[in-house]
Write a structure and sequence with these properties.
The complex is a heterodimer.
Chain A lengths: L4 E12 L2 E12 L3 E5 L6 H8 L7 E6 L2 E2 L5 H7 E4 L11 H5 L1 H5 L4 H14 L4 H4 L9 H13 L5 E5 L7 H18 L2 E6 L2 H7 L2 E6 L2 E6 L1 H4 L5 H20 L7
Chain B lengths: L6 H39 L3 H16 L2 H23 L8 H25 L3 H9 L4 H31 L12 H9 L3 H30 L3 H23 L6 E4 L4 H16 L4 E4 L4 H9 L5 E5 H7 L9 H14 L3 E9 L2 E6 H7 L4 H5 L6 E4 L7 H10 L5 E4 L2 H9 L5 E5 L4 H4 L2 E3 L11 E6 L7 H7 L8 H11 L8 H13 L2
Parallel strand pairs in B: 1-2, 6-7, 6-8
Antiparallel strand pairs in B: 3-10, 4-10, 5-8, 5-9
Classes of the chains: A alpha/beta, B alpha/beta.
């Protein structure tokens, strides 16, 4: 691979009791890449993601982040270095938007004044109105706004890598589309390495550079959408066919001039 | 006299700084100790079902022990511990009053704090704990920045419950020597002073409400991160503590402490002793409502300086003697035995408060009955009533044996009702108390005991070991020795059993002194 590696999994296995959540997976993620991990429920995709910042520890195999074995890195320091966007935001309900966003810099010992400046930058970056949202509690925000705060929080300590666990899954389609596009722009603008979990192949194709497909703990295939379509695996091909079939059905039902 | 103009309100109010102050101090100390013990335990056990279950079960068991019993149990426990530390490490501590009260109440406060602490912490959405980890918090940071703040409302609800329980239960710490608002209630119940009872209940209810509200303010302040509310709540609690400390600061630590047990006569006598000391320019305070077993140990340990006990009681309970000796001999032997424990038996007050067989004077005269020996001939046609313990006490067995007594029926009764029952003829004889005022009121007579089946119960004045050589104290008390005869004490007790302003122990003590000093 030409560019440097941001994250590398080498023959990684993780079991929960009798269940092999991740089964002998090897996967390289290049610096600056946007990778989507696609799979159904219980495919092991969330486990794979969490192994990278040691929210879960591997049973065997080696994981490196920026060419360093994660086992040699203090897990707390590792997590502060890697942004993480949780499903449905994972915002702390007792903290204001600003305090949620500033939490990792605060843990890193950044001064309150610098955090305040950084929070304003980030609110602008994720397109939230500073005056209207800064001091609100998460419960006063819409689902989309919460997820924007979640993204801002993940970016607060200027990570080079961002992990996202079904970040847009619970949103309505319009918000979801807008947020996905906005994040893709941020990814480019900030030169991030982004790894996103999704069960939605359409979302993966539209946002990611490369896609990894998981099923029952196994990595079935990885590559660009075009590379995946040459895969010999029936499940992968079925996953890829679904969006197209849906588009054909949509086109048949919708007058073409109506959609923007 | 209307309820509102009753001068006893004023008397009750004059005790308030002392009672309330002690009540607040003991309650807050117990609550603080309970929290310090419970919160770490809640944190440690919340993820370990087995120890958590055991802990909650233990706390629940503590809760099922009646408050009064729990407080009473801590006294002998600490006495034992104090004797152990004295033997092993050369120091001792007071097992009386504050310490046992704080420990028992702290234990009592633990259940709601533990249960709500564990529930609060375990009720947090696991996704948020995962998020705390994910943004880079250590376990401790997650606890402090996320878990505790989120559990706070549930934990505070537990703390507030504990505070109300502790403040309520602290009223029961009076019998183990801790002054509290319970002093009003215990004294009021014994002397039928309903103003005191009402005052004590109202004061402790208001205190519980006030502390609950202040804690509520603190809770909303913390939750809304409002400095003003947090500050107001904290200042309120601090002010409460500070206010209770003010009256203590001016108080002389040289004050003599007078003990009193839990019945009317004892309240009157302790007021009398206090007046005598004050008249001699000695400062004195009373610790009233002490349990019978507590008071002697408290004297021995020097927690109280003096009190009135009864020779027969000490003979049986402290010397563990079952034989009965003539009055003077028993007193002499008791005096020697007490002296070995460095306790001074200063002397007798002049009356006895013993069990006695009592019947209406007129009926006794008509039947020619003057003593229990005379009664024995009529007993088989008569009925007898006694209090709940009399018929299982050694005195009853001794009486039956000495006089061959055998009554037609025997009944147990609430002591207050016995006298009326015998006066109205519902029963023929009762086992009453010789110094009870109702004997005079109902024109009853206590029959002689020529064979000395019942031990003598002379009222005797006892002094703590460190007062053995205290000449000023002894000089102030000597005018009382041998001066209170049984008729006078009966009348005093009768006065004190009334339920108006003249029946307060203080008022009766003054009456008693006038009577005694004019002799």
């Amino acid at each position: 691979m030409p560019s440097k590696l941001a994250i590398s999994y080498a023959r990684v296995t993780k079991s929960f009791g009798p269940l092999k959540a991740v089964d002998d997976v090897s996967l390289d993620i290049a610096e600056g890449e946007f990778l989507a991990i696609v799979g159904g429920s219980g495919s092991g995709k969330t486990t794979l993601l969490r192994l990278a910042n040691r929210l879960i520890e591997a049973d065997s195999g080696t994981i490196t982040v920026e060419n360093e074995d994660v086992q040699n890195v203090d897990p707390v320091a590792l997590r502060r270095r890697i942004g993480y966007v949780f499903q449905a935001g994972g915002l702390f309900p007792h903290l204001s938007v600003a305090d949620n966003i500033g939490v990792t810099p605060k843990l890193l010992g950044v001064s309150a004044a610098d955090i305040a400046v950084r929070v304003d930058e980030l609110l602008e970056l994720v397109q939230l109105d500073r005056a209207a949202h800064r001091d609100r509690l998460p419960e006063a925000l819409s689902g989309g706004q919460r997820q924007r705060v979640g993204v801002a929080r993940a970016l607060a300590a200027k990570p080079r890598i961002v992990l996202m666990d079904e970040p847009f899954g619970a949103l309505d389609p319009l918000t979801r589309d807008a947020l996905g596009e906005d994040f893709r722009d941020l990814h480019r603008k900030l030169g991030l390495t982004s790894v996103m979990i999704t069960h939605d192949m359409t979302e993966a194709i539209l946002l990611a550079d490369r896609i990894a497909v998981m099923r029952a703990g196994k990595l079935l295939a990885q590559g660009t959408p075009a590379e995946l379509s040459k895969s010999g695996d029936a499940y992968v091909l079925e996953l890829l066919r679904t969006p197209r079939r849906q588009v054909e059905r949509l086109n048949a039902r919708l007058p073409t001039s109506g959609a923007a | 006299m209307s309820l509102f103009t009753d001068p006893r309100w004023g008397e009750a109010l004059s005790h308030l700084p002392d009672y309330l102050g002690n009540h607040v101090r003991v309650s807050l100390a117990a609550l603080a100790l309970g929290l310090i013990a419970s919160l770490p335990l809640a944190l440690l056990t919340r993820n370990h079902p087995a120890p958590r279950g055991i802990l909650l079960a233990l706390a629940s068991i503590v809760q099922t022990v009646p408050g009064l019993a729990l407080l009473a149990l801590f006294y002998p426990l600490l006495l034992l511990l104090a004797s152990v530390t004295l033997a092993w490490f050369g120091f001792s501590f007071s097992a009386f009053g504050f310490l046992p009260a704080v420990l028992a109440l702290a234990l009592y406060s633990m259940l709601p704090v533990l249960r709500n602490g564990i529930t609060g912490l375990n009720g947090i959405d696991p996704a948020l704990i995962e998020a705390a980890k994910g943004v880079g918090m250590t376990a401790r940071q997650s606890l402090v920045m996320v878990e505790l703040p989120l559990a706070l409302p549930v934990m505070m609800a537990g703390i507030r419950t504990a505070a109300v329980w502790v403040i309520g239960t602290a009223t029961l710490s009076t019998p183990i020597g801790q002054t509290s608002l319970g002093n009003y209630i215990f004294a009021g119940l014994q002397t039928q002073n309903w103003v005191f009872v009402l005052f004590g209940c109202l004061a402790s209810a208001l205190l519980a409400l006030a502390v609950d509200q202040l804690l509520g303010l603190l809770e909303t302040g913390l939750r809304q991160r409002s400095r003003m509310r947090t500050g107001l709540g904290a200042i309120g609690i601090a002010a409460l503590v500070a206010a209770t400390l003010v009256p203590t600061m001016g108080r002389s630590s040289q004050s003599y402490v007078i003990g009193a047990k839990t019945f009317t006569e004892q309240y009157v006598l302790s007021a009398l002793l206090r007046d005598r000391l004050q008249a001699a320019d000695l400062s004195a305070t009373a610790r009233s409502g002490l349990g019978s077993s507590v008071i002697f140990e408290a004297l021995k340990a020097g927690d109280i300086d003096l009190y009135v006990d009864y020779s027969g009681t000490l003979w049986a309970n402290q010397l563990h003697r079952t034989d009965i000796k003539p009055r003077a001999e028993l007193l002499a032997e008791l005096k020697t035995a007490l002296a070995k424990e460095n306790i001074t038996l200063l002397g007798e007050l002049g009356f006895e408060n013993a069990y006695a067989l009592v019947m209406p004077r007129k009926r006794a005269e008509a039947l020619g009955i003057r003593s229990i020996a005379d009664l024995a001939a009529h007993a088989s046609t008569m009925s007898i009533a006694g209090d709940y313990e009399f018929f299982s006490r050694p005195e009853w067995a001794a009486l039956q044996k000495a006089y061959g007594l055998s009554f037609r029926t025997q009944r147990q009764m609430q002591p207050d009702f016995m006298y009326a029952a015998v006066a109205s003829g519902e029963v023929d004889v009762i086992a009453g108390y010789t110094s009870d005022g109702l004997i005079a009121k109902y024109d009853l007579v206590a029959l002689d005991d020529p064979r000395h089946a019942i031990p003598p119960y002379d009222a005797i004045l006892l002094l703590a070991p460190m007062r053995a050589g205290d000449e000023r104290l002894q000089a102030a008390l000597r005018p009382l020795l041998g001066r209170i005869d049984i008729a006078t004490m009966r009348e005093a007790n009768l006065r004190a059993s009334g339920n108006d302003a003249n029946s307060s122990p203080d008022a009766v003590a003054k009456w008693l002194w006038e009577k005694v000093s004019n002799r």
